Amino acid sequence: MKAPVWNLKLYVAGKWVSEKESMPVIDKFTGETFANVPVASRETTERAIGAAHEAFPAWSRTPAHKRYQLLSNVSRLLEERREEIATIICREAGKAWKYSVGEVSRSVETYRFSAEEAKRIHGETVPMDASFAGEGRVGYWLRTPLGVVTAITPFNFPLNLVAHKVGPALAVGNTLVLKPASTTPMTAIKLAEIIEEAGVPAGVFNVVVGSGGTVGEWLTVDPRISKISFTGSPPVGEQIIRKAGLKKVTMELGNNSGTIIEPDADLAAAVPRCVMSAFANSGQVCISLQRLYVHKAIAKEFIRRFLEETRKLKVGNPLEKDCDVGPMIEEKEAIRAEEWVKEAVREGAKVLVGGKREGRVMQPTVLVNVRTEMKVMCQEAFAPLVSIYEYGKFEDAVAMVEDSPYGLQAGVYTNDLKKAMYAVDRINVGGVMINDTSIFRVDHMPYGGNKLSGLGREGVRFACEEMTSIKMVMIKP
Ligand code: NAP
User: Fold this and answer.
1) Reported pTM
2) How far apart are the C-alpha atoms of 145 and 148, rounded to whole Å?
3) FRET label pair with 39: which of 110, 257, 390, 426, CA 20 to 30 Å apart?
4) Which of 90, 274, 286, 464 is catalytic?
């Protein structure tokens, strides 16, 4: 018997709302519609902003210990519904089961970190008498919430990248309207159920679904919004900045991440880690390993082991517990990835494994004989493609990793401290991972990019800072 199709609702002003128009949520592996979600009208979107605006004064004055408790409730309820939410991620994003469960576990932690951070938001005293004009005065500064935050999120981590905006916003006393990616709206709606059950007051958190060009834009231009927190592609990020006007923005954008493997690297650890970093979530991770620079002294052995490991990957139905690589988000993206591979081959590259696709499923693909100007090297692939480049001098490899319009994260496998520090100094990125790949992230570390990879930082404490403003107080007794 076929499972029933869920009919979902939006969550606005503490109420569950239907709309005239709806859109399907597609299982990315089977292609079936497994839910329908309402598309927010302009009126509903404005109602959501209005509700968040009205809820702000009371929420911003809610004591920290209460915000801590409510966010702890969100974390606990998410943990209780781990399997259910992981199944939804698996189906709507096409993410392999083990990584879907992993995403829920990370989000449980992200809300716990946010709860803890709610208790730590504080300022400092200022030694006023350091200036002759400040003598006899008392000064201190506070962190204050901004108001209504718009959160616009991508498809690839529909729970945890939402958590990185919702957790900090609520922790510091902001209210929020969330617009998830149109391909993965269901996880966000399930989160709204959890937030309601956790006891967060009506209007503090709202979810509206619809296209970026309509709902996303309405949430960008509205003057009642104080801050836009966006994760997605650089062109959309730039468009939002142009339209936002005088609002605070945080931009978490793309990358074509590089990792260097020096001859002293522990290959037994590095090879499986590099394979996972290139192909987890079909390479649709902003810090996926896309460019792999391997020293020529070990290249032959590294590539042999890398291919052996890649061939072991189980590709296909993400709901199967041992699946490693599921489908990509849309068939057009898989077609694009396949085209990029063909183009690279026409320009002289060689495919060692993969290179083909079936529907949305792109085979994990390893390329060699690549050149810097090929798309697979110089643009963000966001697909299960990795290019291996053999180098002779460490300094050249560092320069090649740095030679990118992006600057999110990079990895270097070496036990030579001088080389590690050289790379840390020369690569202009938000994070350098030594003896790991670009993909390493835990949710409380500062995370974000330079250059085309974005503006500002997430990682709970850092997002809290970006979601507050500083108020200076001077007292003349
Ligand atoms: P995307 O196409 O840029 O979409 C991201 C979000 O923006 C979606 O909710 C989208 O809505 C919305 N949007 C589209 N056009 C808009 C507009 N004109 N105004 C306002 N909102 C608009 O990105 P994606 O394909 O979902 O995600 C992939 C990208 O995200 C990659 O570049 C990846 O590197 C980046 N990413 C970065 C990070 C990071 O932390 N740095 C993390 C994950 C992903 P629709 O879905 O309706 O189009």
Assistant:
1) 0.98
2) 9
3) 110
4) 286
Which string of b and e fits 382-419 if b means at least 16 CB within 10 Å? Answer: bbbbbbbbbbeebeebbebbeebebbbbbbbbbeeeeb
Closest CA to 450 of 468, 436, 429: 429
Determine whether 135 is an active site residue. Answer: no
Looking at domain 6-253+453-475, which of 3.30.1330.40, 3.40.605.10, 3.30.420.40, 3.40.190.10 is its CATH number?
A: 3.40.605.10
| 258-442 fold | Aldehyde Dehydrogenase; Chain A, domain 2 (3.40.309)
Q: For residue 326, which of 154, 89, 37 has the smallest C-alpha distance?
A: 89
Q: Are the C-beta atoms of residues 113 and 167 closer than 8 Å to each other?
A: yes
Looking from the CA of residue 234, the nearest atom of ligand 1 is 32
Domain boundaries in the chain?
Answer: 6-253+453-475, 258-442
Q: Residue 305 Cα, ligand 1 centroid: separation in angstroms?
A: 35
**pLDDT tens per residue across all 477 residues of the chain:** 677 899 999 999 999 999 999 999 999 999 999 999 999 999 999 999 999 999 999 999 999 999 999 999 999 999 999 999 999 999 999 999 999 999 999 999 999 999 999 999 999 999 999 999 999 999 999 999 999 999 999 999 999 999 999 999 999 999 999 999 999 999 999 999 999 999 999 999 999 999 999 999 999 999 999 999 999 999 999 999 999 999 999 999 999 999 999 999 999 999 999 999 999 999 999 999 999 999 999 999 999 999 999 999 999 999 999 999 999 999 999 999 999 999 999 999 999 999 999 999 999 999 999 999 999 999 999 999 999 999 999 999 999 999 999 999 999 999 999 999 999 999 999 999 999 999 999 999 999 999 999 999 999 999 999 999 999 999 999
For tokens 């945080």, the residue is 250
Closest C-alpha to ligand 1, atom 16: 212
Buried b / exposed e along 94-123 (16+ C-beta atoms within 10 A): bbbbbbbbbbbebbbbbbbbbbbbbeebee
State the angle between helix axes of 160-172 and 97-118 in degrees (0 to 180), rounded to the nearest 10: 10
* Best residue among 155, 236, 284 to mutate for probing ligand 1, ranked by most atoms within 8 Å of CB: 236
Which ligand 1 atom sits nearest the alpha carbon of residue 220?
Answer: 20
Spacing, Cα 454 to ligand 1 middle (Å) = 12
Residue 70 CA to residue 67 CA, distance in Å, equals 5
